Amino acid sequence: MTNVADPLAQRSRTTGLSVIVPRSEAVLIPLAALLAGSLAFSLFLLLVGKSPLTFFGLVWTAGFSTAFSWQNTLSQVSPLLFAALCVALPARLGLVVIGGEGAIVLGGLAAAVAGAVVAGWPPALALGLMALAAMACGGGWIATVGALRIKRGVNETIASLLMAYIAIALFNHLVEGPFRDPASLNKPSTLPLTESLRVGEMPLIAAHWGVLVGILACIACWVLIERTTLGFAARIAGDNLRAAQVQGLPVGRLVIGFTALGGAFAGLGGFFEVAAVHGSANASLIAGYGYTGILVAFLARHNPLAIIPVAILLGGFAASSGLIQRRMDLPDATILVFQGMIFVAILLSETAYGRFRIFTATYWEGR
């Protein structure tokens, strides 16, 4: 008598593998790129006479080993989450927007100026208005990149990068000029926020509320992209812009809308940096979070959910910078070199997608 259970079980296993393995490509290749970048950086450390084991040990110690280490890591995570969304959302439309740094600093400046205007108002209302001002400023700034792309055909990568430099120059001019607090002598800054307008820490976790808001924003963006008709239209436009136009999709509004939303999140990141960390807008706001956010988004394959663990990982790298500088006698920019090598590996790994038969569903049929 033929046992039909075995063929059914085999078919079930085959079906499962044909679904799971192809999806794992988007995880395994970035992990391989992360490992390759780490190996390349290890060779660099050996060339300069430093121990890679010591380096990665210090990264673990400073970023993830203790509650205090996690506090330092989480303090870096919030702006990375928002900056990565500024890259990931337009990327679903096939756009490479890398100017989140400008939206962060201008959003932070808008929040600080709004805070000076609404000082004395009920804290909940005042903080809400500050956040809205930051999002409007950041969203409008990056939406300009989308408008230039649609209306004038200007490359969004070049436009966003140049506008980031313009934003930083504008920020410095306003902070050192019209919006400067006369009492800030050595380090020009805006008027400090009152204590009632400062964002505090979450209970039981030594991290401000921006971390939770950033995580919720990533989840909301995943729902928007994967579970709504608007997100489906954006994905169609990203796969084939001309086909989307032929089908009558509002490509122009999608491009401007998604770039505006990404910029709004970057501006919100600037709000939390001012209201939760610095207390005013000053040069410390220009910390390169917008550029690290590019690496976070690419390493996460522009998946909003994947941005969360990647931002935590890179936040730990950033938190370990000072300890590495002191213990290994390396420049403070060492972590930037490490991130740069990872980014190069991520870019090179793009050529690996679709090249391995093991990640195709047909490979597992009948096995």
Beta-strand percent range: under 5%
Count the strands?
0
Radius of gyration: 23 Å
Distance between the termini: 24 Å
**Helical percent range?**
over 70%
Order of helices and strands: HHHHHHHHHHHHHH
Give the CATH level 1 class. Answer: Mainly Alpha
CATH topology: ABC transporter involved in vitamin B12 uptake, BtuC
Number of helical stretches of at least 4 residues: 14
Which regions contain 5 or more consecutive residues with pLDDT less than 50? none
- The computed structural class is mainly alpha
Q: What's the rounded overall pLDDT mean? A: 90
Largest sheet: none
Number of separate domains:
1
CATH architecture: Orthogonal Bundle
Shape: globular
